Amino acid sequence: MAGNTSAPGASVTSRVLAILGSFDAEHRSLTLSELARRSGLPLPTVHRLAAELVSGGALVRRGSGEYVVGRRMWDLGLLAPVQADLRQVASPFLHDIYAATLATVHLGVRDGAEVLYVDRLSGHASVPVVSQIGSRLPLHATGVGKVLLAYAPDAVREQVLGNLTRFTSYTITQPGRLVAELRQVQRLGYAQTHEEMSLGACSVAVPIRSADGRVVAALGIVVASLRRDRPRLIAALQVAAQGIGRSLSAERR
User: Fold this and answer.
1) What's residue 86's pLDDT?
2) Has this prediction a pTM greater than 0.90?
3) Which residue ranges does the record assign to the IclR-ED domain (predicted)?
4) What is the span of the domain harbouring residue 135?
């Protein structure tokens, strides 16, 4: 929530940002009164600015009267270097993995205490997943999220460990157990989940590193079971991640 943006002197820009900032993964669709409450702005102000945002394509007003983020915001987001460059470079590698497995392939970056899905490939034969391009999910319950959490700053890890939400009976909600698993991710070079975000979906993921060794993204795949193909999937992901890392470094020279 944006805070006291209704205070005298608040700029139009800060008010617009407060309205847009009212949306998150748990609040994708909001009524006018909900927008006012979450943004901290007066209802008449929200009504006026929301109408302008709808006119400009930043918001969409559904027939029910609820507002959702418009396509224009997504198009602008794709221009951010971390997403545009990464998606463009990684795309061929994602397509190669998908063609070989027909499983859902994820490309994610850390956005605060969540994983932001920059790209995703899936088909009719893929295991159903809850992720979408542009969506955010918890770091502790997803394969790409665990990779990113393992290499996140201490403050981020502490924030996540203090709020381990349970999504299925298999979600890890014990801080000590998760810390041990994150250490294993750093030691082995990959993370895995077993039905921790949604039932019937297991995942494995690996880090993508920049030229200086920093983890800048994670590449993962979702399957029904990891019992038989885990070594093969890890090897394929690691080769792809190395290729993406090298390509990113070459692009930025």
Assistant:
1) 87
2) no
3) 72-250
4) 78-251
